Amino acid sequence: MLDIRGLHKVYEGSGRRVEAVRDLTFTVSAGELVCLVGPSGCGKTTLLKCMGGLLTPTAGEVLLSGKPVSGPPPGMAFVFQEYGRSLFPWMRVGQNVELPLKQKNLTKARRKELVADALESVGLADAAGAYPWQLSGGMQQRVAIARALAYEPQVLLMDEPFAAVDAQTRADLEDLVRGLWRERGITILFVTHDIDEAVYLGERVIVLSASPTVVQEQLKVDLPDERDQLHTRVAPRFAELRTHVYEQIQAAKRGIPQDAVTKSNTPPLH
Ligand code: ADP
Ligand code: MG
């Protein structure tokens, strides 16, 4: 579904040159939930912007269903970290969710249906008439998720979407994402700097090195499909996986390749 080949991005301007992403190659299959984890400043947002056609890579390419991405592709939706800035304060929640649908060739009745369905899916069926600033941070981020869902994307890119909400809300939103993914079969690429979040959510975790960024490792998360905050996070396997990812990130910081940390691609079972 998504094919990232040799992606390289250098920011240039006003006498500064920042190599944000050195060389990234990975794929995401249709219907997968993949988490990308890497330290702050390693180029995660840069990567997502290149994938979403919002930035042009310096070299390399992004393919969506085999076609090169050159501008925002119709089948893709974004959820950004800064929900406070991503909703229009002068529009009611329902209008915010409906806005991107206006680019699609849909009847007003169908748009209303999609908005109602998306708000219902995120547990905000009653909030359509409220303004974003009347809602809590967690609820605002649910609105942003609803807006993405209503668009009926094939691919959903999420950029540290829960970094600014409190721990309890964050746990609820993580479960919401897994639930929606299982119900709707969307392909999700979820970016986070939080190792535990990546392991809890993902079917696969791609570990990025510090900037200039390369893929340090890809790891299959062999936890059961049914996950819950209480049991999954205390499971021995969860601890093994998170420790492994942590070690990889530490090694990446010191510039040690993956093979020198562990021989195999998956952490050892005991
Ligand atoms: P992350 O999302 O992983 O925290 P970013 O993609 O935001 O990382 O940034 C990666 C690197 O690129 C950082 O060093 C950052 O300062 C730099 N960078 C990001 N955006 C720009 C820009 N528009 N111009 C110049 N440098 C940038
Ligand atoms: Mg970022």
Automatic annotation (TrEMBL):
Keyword ATP-binding applies: yes
Keyword list, A-Z: ATP-binding, Nucleotide-binding, Transport
Any GO MF annotation of the entry: ATP binding
Entry-linked InterPro entries: AAA+_ATPase, ABC_transporter-like_ATP-bd, ABC_transporter-like_CS, ABC_transporter_ATP-bind, P-loop_NTPase
Domain of life from the UniProt record: Bacteria
All residue ranges annotated as the ABC transporter domain in the record: 2-235
Record PANTHER family: ALIPHATIC SULFONATES IMPORT ATP-BINDING PROTEIN SSUB, TAURINE IMPORT ATP-BINDING PROTEIN-RELATED
Name of the protein described by the UniProt record: NitT/TauT family transport system ATP-binding protein
Native organism: Streptomyces pseudovenezuelae
